[in-house]
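Late entry, written up from scratch paper. The run itself happened at the end of the previous shift, but nothing got recorded in the book at the time, so transcribing now.
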Amino acid sequence: MKKTIAKITAALSAAVMCALPMANAITSSAATSSVKTFRTYIDIDATDYDLHEFEYDRRFGGSYKNTTTFRGYKVFLAGDIDHTTPQTGRSCLFIESDGLRRFQGTVATETYDCTYANANVNGFKNSITKVIWAFNDWKNAGHTDYYDDFEDKVTEEIVLVGDTNRNGTIELSDAVYILQYVANPIKYSGIDKKAADIDGNGYVNSYDALLIQRYQSGIINSFGDVQA
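Output as recorded:
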């Protein structure tokens, strides 16, 4: 199986690399799949907080109700993690971890498949932080305070997985762009690296380009199923 994937990757890479001079002229049609995959990056800045528990409550707009399927999440901290899958336009991530104390950076990512025909990044921005807890006495955990000012310390980035050039569609040219970046990351530094990381493993490589090709050809129906 690995040899087969390697051969397909090599073939796709060779074909695309030969076409690099004409990359800007590519006008391939968007993927035929009706499923779009969105990945959210939830960042917090707890530099000045003894944060211990974090709850992120997402509420989708009305047009997204019952059109999203939660495909999995990745948390970058050890501890008790819970997540409710989207129902009636809402999902909730809960993290309890000593690692949250003074933490700064991406705390979790979430991946959603959406069948809404006009799904776009803006449709996922209707979200709120609901409950933020921290212990005053960190060692004994004898008292809790609610940080009502922590919402301003939470940011979220949302990407349409595969949309490497941010034009709102997923096309073969996105695979070309990935291979261009892999071949010359300095020249093609403008690529959306998070959207280009198709399998969500933290790296952009030729396998990500292969996944777009498989999505385009209907071999896979969404990128949610191939998350690392």
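The helical segments are 2-18, 172-183, 193-196, 206-216.
(Scratch paper discarded after transcription.)
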